[in-house]
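ARCHIVE CARD
CATEGORY: sequence design from structure
SOURCE FIELD: tokenized fold
FIELD CONTENT:
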């Protein structure tokens, strides 16, 4: 694997999930594979899990890491070509990507969507510029429209908790006070499309995700109906896709609580974190034995580790 940008960069999903679970049992099995290799981690946005779990994965593989919070520590980057750089941006991504390539063997990039311009966000300007100009492999640590490391983590966590051969999995929209990107939901949908599960998306009217991504997936607008007999509830907020980046409802009717979880088949609760307690999900659900959120956070390490291992060895 050269770059890991989207879920479809994985060839054999079942195999990679099993390999990640094996790594979890023996994290230092490949501790020499990254010897004398450097992983650069470039953040344009905040992170807890991605930042620490990707470092931890690198440590398990014997790699060294270098980390930079680009917005606060780097020069403002210019992305347009043939522009006269008389504004605030001091450095062109063309040089920045090549310079980082001198110091690192792989670079992870986190660059969220602006939620201001759908066309620019869907062009994946930042990560695609790094792919274009860097001479080293690129790891997507959440871009405008995809968070594949999170989706791989979620698939690992589902596999670890599965009780029936074809569980019902519900991706449920949940409220949030701020407009959030679509990346986590998009990648979870893409992961479910290549998994043999019963998969349903529940979201309010006006919150349908990009129809190109949800093509062929059942989408319903009645959350309680969706929850019936579900084995896994994956909660996530996203802003409107049609009214791009907007918040359309400001009530708590889609908050996930014990009453709704009782409709499920003793279902497990999942969320990528960070999560706002009692706005997205009630304390009782998040603190219950059925909550998998900490297990998910732990699995971020092994998702990153199996991907880094494949990038280092250029295998798919
Ligand atoms: N789930 C996730 O990507 O967490 P961070 O934003 O803290 O990295």
């Amino acid at each position: 694997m050269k770059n890991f940008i989207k879920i479809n960069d994985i060839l054999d999903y079942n195999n990679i999930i099993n390999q990640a679970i094996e790594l979890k049992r023996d994290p230092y099995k490949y501790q020499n594979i990254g010897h004398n290799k450097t992983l650069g981690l470039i953040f344009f946005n905040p992170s807890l899990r991605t930042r620490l779990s990707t470092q931890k994965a690198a440590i398990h593989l014997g790699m060294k890491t270098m980390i930079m919070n680009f917005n606060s520590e780097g020069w403002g980057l210019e992305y347009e070509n043939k522009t006269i750089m008389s504004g605030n941006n001091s450095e062109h991504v063309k040089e920045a990507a090549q310079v980082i390539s001198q110091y690192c063997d792989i670079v992870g990039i986190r660059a969220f969507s602006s939620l201001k311009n759908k066309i620019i966000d869907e062009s994946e300007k930042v990560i695609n510029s790094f792919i274009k100009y860097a001479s080293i492999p690129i790891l997507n640590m959440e871009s405008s429209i995809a968070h594949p490391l999170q989706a791989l983590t979620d698939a690992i966590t589902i596999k670890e908790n599965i009780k029936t051969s074809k569980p019902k999995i519900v991706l449920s929209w949940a409220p949030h006070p701020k407009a959030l990107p679509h990346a986590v939901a998009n990648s979870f949908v893409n992961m479910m499309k290549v998994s043999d599960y019963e998969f349903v998306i529940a979201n309010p009217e006006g919150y349908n995700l990009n129809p190109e991504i949800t093509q062929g997936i059942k989408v319903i607008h009645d959350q309680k109906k969706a929850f019936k007999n579900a084995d896994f509830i994956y909660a996530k907020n996203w802003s409107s896709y049609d009214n791009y980046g907007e918040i359309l409802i400001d009530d708590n009717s889609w908050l996930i609580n014990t009453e709704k979880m009782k409709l499920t088949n003793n279902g497990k609760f999942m969320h990528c974190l960070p999560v706002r307690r009692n706005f997205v999900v009630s304390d009782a659900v998040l603190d219950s034995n059925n909550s998998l959120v900490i297990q998910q956070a732990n699995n971020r390490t092994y998702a990153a580790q199996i991907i880094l291992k494949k990038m280092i060895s250029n295998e798919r």
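CARD ANNOTATION: The chain has a mean pLDDT of 97. Residues 47-50, 142, 150, 272-274 surround phosphoric acid mono(formamide)ester (CB under 6 Å).
SHELF: design records, drawer C
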